[in-house]
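hey
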């Protein structure tokens, strides 16, 4: 249900956005095919696969509770969470609330039904919050540093820098004949990837982070809506394309999707094909792994060991009595600070663990009883073994 609501939110933000799945790029770029069967990706119990697991309750009084977590980030022992309204809730690593940033001095408050901030990233001095064409910089304690208004770029929707090389990602608006530009990925002035103009598809969600922000060994990654191709970028160009191949039941039928030109048919199609992987979500490196979020119902995150090519399905790692049947991550929120992976659990996750303990006649632990008293989300950080 939460995934569906996020899809609907993307529709409201980009009601006429069209993209293509078939991509045109140089045949000289090496392609590595990786076959993935989600159900049989490696799993196990939490104690077999996870270490350094911590549950950190986010403390708050009744007027400071988070309605939901839109996205979160961990850096410099600070936990930054954007709420359902896009307000910044800033905590220390012990879960103590430092500040709620919900108003920009001198700026008129936006409408309640719009996200106040829709993106958060780190800088050398703290966090950068994005609101439309405005960047807001705050320090590690949530104090305003400055605001920067940028000129809207109608062609470049996202930009990243690798070494001295600048990369640009754009989403062509096929419904607007005045901007029928099909290039989507460029390195400086050089076009690397273009869309097939005839394969325009209605976009059912907002693919904001189409270029990965977290880099390792001067590599970043680009992905495209309705595509299971992942482009590995470095300062010289595209070093490799990973092509993920899935069983037929998980594979999108492009010929069917091309016919969908409106919002409700897309939602109906997704509801009728819940096992289909429609594309790639967040991608980031973590230690020897590349973490890849597959856009399946509820999302399915895999960890690919880039040395051994071993594939772990995080949804296949299950809690048991050794962990009091308590989950270790949320399916829609996952990130890293380089050392840890982190996610967020909600009060209903605690209630489910208690219910499972009772069903299995496992004593409800004092730890679960303490977490049950928390009315706020719980920040979780952990490592893959």
């Amino acid at each position: 249900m939460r995934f569906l609501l996020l899809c609907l939110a993307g529709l409201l933000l980009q009601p006429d956005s069209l993209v293509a799945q078939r991509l045109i790029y140089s045949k000289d770029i090496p392609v590595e095919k990786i076959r993935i069967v989600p159900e049989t990706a490696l799993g196990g119990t939490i104690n077999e696969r996870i270490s350094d697991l911590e549950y950190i309750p986010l403390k708050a009084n009744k007027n400071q509770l988070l309605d939901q977590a839109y996205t979160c980030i961990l850096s410099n022992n600070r936990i930054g969470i954007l709420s359902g309204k896009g307000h910044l809730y800033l905590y220390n690593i012990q879960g103590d609330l430092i500040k709620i940033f919900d108003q920009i001095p001198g700026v008129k408050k936006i409408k309640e039904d719009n996200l106040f901030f829709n993106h958060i990233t780190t800088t050398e001095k703290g966090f950068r919050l994005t609101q439309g064409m405005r960047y807001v910089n705050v320090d590690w304690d949530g104090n305003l540093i400055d605001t920067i208004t940028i000129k809207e770029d109608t062609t470049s929707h996202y930009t990243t820098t690798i070494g001295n090389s600048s990369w640009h990602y754009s989403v062509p608006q096929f419904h607007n004949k005045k901007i029928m530009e099909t290039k989507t990925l460029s390195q400086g002035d050089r076009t690397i990837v273009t869309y097939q103009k005839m394969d325009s598809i209605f976009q059912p969600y907002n693919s904001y982070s189409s270029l990965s922000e977290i880099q390792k060994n001067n590599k970043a990654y680009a992905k495209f809506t309705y595509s299971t191709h992942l482009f590995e970028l470095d300062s010289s160009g595209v070093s490799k394309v990973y092509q993920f191949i899935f069983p037929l039941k998980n594979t999108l039928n492009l010929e069917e999707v091309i016919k969908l030109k409106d919002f409700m048919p897309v939602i109906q199609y997704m509801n009728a094909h819940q096992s289909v992987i429609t594309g790639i979500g967040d991608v980031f490196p973590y230690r020897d792994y590349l973490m890849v979020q597959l856009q399946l119902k509820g999302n399915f995150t895999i960890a690919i060991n880039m040395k051994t090519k071993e594939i772990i399905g995080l949804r296949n790692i299950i809690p048991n009595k050794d962990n009091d049947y308590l989950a270790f991550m949320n399916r829609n929120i996952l990130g890293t600070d380089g050392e840890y992976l982190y996610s967020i659990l909600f009060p209903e996750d605690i209630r489910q663990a208690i219910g499972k303990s009772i069903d299995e006649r496992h004593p409800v632990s004092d730890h679960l009883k303490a977490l049950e008293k928390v009315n706020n989300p719980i920040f979780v950080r952990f490592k893959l073994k």
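The radius of gyration is 21 Å. Residues 347-359 form the longest helix (13 residues).
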